[in-house]
Amino acid sequence: MSSKCPAGPQDPPPSSPPSTATSNTENDEDSGSDQAQGGPGPCLALAQTGPEVLGAASQAQGALNSRGSQVRGRWELLRSRLGDLLGERCHRLLRLPSLDEEELYSAAATLKHLSVLFNAHDLTPWQLFEPCTLLLRRAADTGEVPPQLLVPAITCAHFHILWELSRLANTDVPQEQLLSLKDKTTSFCALCQSCLSNGDAGVREQAFVVLSDLLLVLGPSETRGAGAALAPLRLVPDVELRSQLAAVLLDHVFSPGDRDGDEPDAAEAHMEDLHCRRMLLAGFCKLIIYNVLEPSATSDVLKYYDKFHAEYGDIIKETLACIHRMDGQEWARVVLLSLQQVMTELLMEHGPGVRGVPAFGGLRDLGRRLSLFFGPRPQPNRQVLLRLHRDGIAFALQEGPGGGPGGDPVGAPLYLPFLEVLSEFSPRLLPPDRVLLLTHLQQSCQQLGMTPPERSPWPPLAAYHRSLQPPEPPQKRRRTEETWQGPSPPLSPALTSTVLRAPPSPPWELCVPGPSRTEH
Questions:
Q1: Which residues contact 67 (CB under 8 A, 6 or more apart)?
Q2: How confident is the model at residue 378 (pLDDT cuts 50, 70, 90)?
Q3: 17: how many CB neighbours lie within 10 A of its CB?
Q4: Most exposed residue of 4, 317, 318, 480, measured as fewest CB within 10 angstroms of its CB?
Q5: In the predicted model, what is the mean pLDDT of residues 367-390?
């Protein structure tokens, strides 16, 4: 499903430009003559539509066209003729105002062949970018382009940009050429962004993958240092694009999949679907790790950590670990932000009586699981943990008295139940920090005119106050003699033997030799 981003061209461009005067019949005859000359690769590729077969054929052609191959010249000619055939057919079909069923099938098959061939071969001389973007623009304007054309068109335009970028990395490029490529990239990204709201799931996923790749290649970290020549091409995602990418994750990654166990191939289909979901999530997380997206974007992923821990736990933990290595304070803010977002969503859905719904228990479980990231030793994360508690207290008491949730006395702040979630992080605190937070909590309540926490009638505030109490030191257990109040235990039976032994002799008899003494 996802496209592979080539590191560079695997073969040089064709020595001769693609011909435009040949017809379909002539090209078909040329491909037939190629087969007669011992080149069945193009004909095999044209006869198949499966992605596995097309990918294998493309890799085989790339291997035969390598520098050390003895048939490189012949395969360059065959590839050029195959590009002529597919390129001319693509241009002709995509210029038509409407396509019948047969033309639609031919156009879809042609674009699919080109998209697979583009992965391993530089097809930029055939100028496929313009017809593909025109097709995407028509889909954005009218919505009448079928998905079987949109997915390979997105892939072809994506590879066209990547192949052009591969030629610009290590050369002095004129400013005009950079600006031209910048216009291409910007317009194509805008079209892909419009495809994120397409009705077809395959189109949305392919647009998501392509946007993730381009944002990563042209992101801030890749256009500095050795890639400073590509600085004019830098792409910076806006807030709207980030929201759309997060929406695709919600629809395609963090949604329960179809798991029909009655089908014989259900397990294999589920594994393939899980692999595709993990690739989408990994693409989004890489944008965060490489500073393309702000670290706060991790909250869109982290709030589902408890529910989808088995499927994506390793990806989310590695993303958090990278953020922690870059900035510990930002890492703690991301953890708190994810909990705050879930709390806000629950209040919007269930109102002030949120403590009585099962989803609030899930939020506490999420907080308990996220608290494990602070580790068993609180000293390294002491400052960030203090900041997390202070910001959490400010969030819970932000509205002051008013609202009165159901089941609690009237006047409780709306976000006060969040203190129960925050109490899951209290066991990680050191005793001196507990005293500091107790003082901070009492001062905050006093400034808002609230009852002191130790006498508060609100259960969340009282529970959080108890969680901050320093743990009692362990006391030594004293042994006390207690009388047995129950029935007396049964007497153990006396040991008997068939041989009666004499009592032991006194110690002096063992030491004095001779006859034993007698009393006088």
A1: none
A2: confident
A3: 12
A4: 480
A5: 90
- CA 40, CA 34: separation in Å to the nearest integer? 7
Tens of pLDDT, residue by residue over 166-225, are 887 556 777 888 888 999 999 999 999 999 999 899 999 999 999 999 999 988 876 565
Least confidently predicted of 1-5, 83-87, 371-375: 1-5
The string of DSSP letters for 348-380 reads: HHHTT-GGGSHHHHHHHHHHHHHHGGG-S--ST
Residue 481 pLDDT exceeds 60: no
| Local structure of 409: helix, strand or coil | coil
Distances 145 to 105, 138, 446 between C-alpha atoms, Å: 13, 7, 63
Please report the sign of the dihedral spanned by the C-alpha atoms of residue 371, residue 377, residue 381, residue 386: positive
- CA distances for 343 relative to 1, 77, 365, angstroms: 35, 63, 13
Q: What is the DSSP string of 437-466?
A: HHHHHHHHHHHTTPPPGGG-S-HHHHHHHH
Taking alpha carbons only, the member of 100, 75, 157, 78 closest to residue 124 is 157
Residue pair 3/210 in contact (Cβ under 8 Å)? The answer is yes
* The residue type at 186: T
Tokens of 303: 């709030």
Domain presence at residue 375: no
On the question of pLDDT at 484 being above 70, the answer is no
CA-to-CA distance for 199 and 178, rounded, in angstroms? 34
Residue 33 predicted with pLDDT over 60: no
Q: How many domains does the chain have?
A: 1
Ramachandran area for residue 496 (φ above 0: left; ψ -120 to 50: alpha; else beta): beta
Number of residues in the chain: 520
Tell me if 298 is assigned to some domain: no
Residue 244, helix vs strand vs coil: helix
- Find the distance separating the first CA and the last CA of the chain, reported in whole Å: 116
Residue 517 — very low, low, confident or very high, per pLDDT cuts 50/70/90? very low
> What token pair was written down for 320?
């958090």
Sign (positive or negative) of CA dihedral 62, 68, 69, 71:
positive
CA distances from 457 to 375, 382, 453 (A): 33, 31, 9
455: domain range? 382-467
Contact 95, 131 (CB under 8 A): yes
3-state SS class at 417: coil
Higher-pLDDT residue of 248, 12: 248
Q: Is residue 93 part of a domain?
A: no
Q: Is residue 432 part of a domain?
A: yes
Query: What token pair was written down for 29?
Result: 């005859």
